[in-house]
What does this fold into?
Amino acid sequence: MRKSSVIWILALLVSVALGSVVSLTSPGLAEVEFRGLPIVLEFNFWNVRSYNGNALLKFDGERVLFEADLYDIVQVDPNRWVHGYPEIYYGYKPWSGKGVSSDVLKLPRKVSDLPDFHVVLEYSLWHEERLPFNLAVESWITREERPRIVTAGDVEMMIWLYNSILTPGGDRVGTLQVEMEVNGEVVETIWEVYYAEWEWDYLAFRLTTPLREGKVVLPVKPFVEKTKEVIREFSRMKRVSNFDEMYFENVEVGTEFGDPRTKESRFGWEIREFSILVK
It folds into this structure.
């Protein structure tokens, strides 16, 4: 998911009703506690200049919900392709400059100190069939701890659990097999690996059997290790050095949507569980 350091001026419109309900109705962010885990909600329309219609990112105390019914969409920069990435995240996110962490897994931390951990995610989603769309787990791996922007020498790592029409950027450079729990059953999954050297180094892992809904227990370390291997083998610019001493900043979960031809977007999703499991 490509971004700009001057994407928007954060207009935080948070309405807090009874209990722990938090709703965002325009680009902004809010911190909540999801079953004991601190997370950030981010209504992230980073590449949308304007639109008509409605969108809502909501935490109701038990679930995170997103709904969008958008039309007359105008992009900030069509060359950056997708429109946005409404999401939740744990850890520190460059671009927003906000982070949350806990004793479950302290983030950011050096790659060399990263334990074997899993992301537990239960979700469902819907979208118009003609809408370019994905659901992805993303992490930023940076040279400096807690940077405010990402530049050459930093790394974006995306794990696409679902996609329709939308495909990763860059070139396909291989595959990765990962043992993962899906709906309570351990299965061997296959991921296509894509790599690009843009403003930073970009890696995307696309699941070859996209999961529109379900519960997954996703091991993160195999993707980090493959990222290191791909950069070492395929990088021409050699901007990433001493990968193990870089900082693993966060875990994000969200949906990229749209393309330069997309003027309307209708979709939604529900996250019923998001947790970090350290082995």
Notes: The chain has one domain: 14-278.
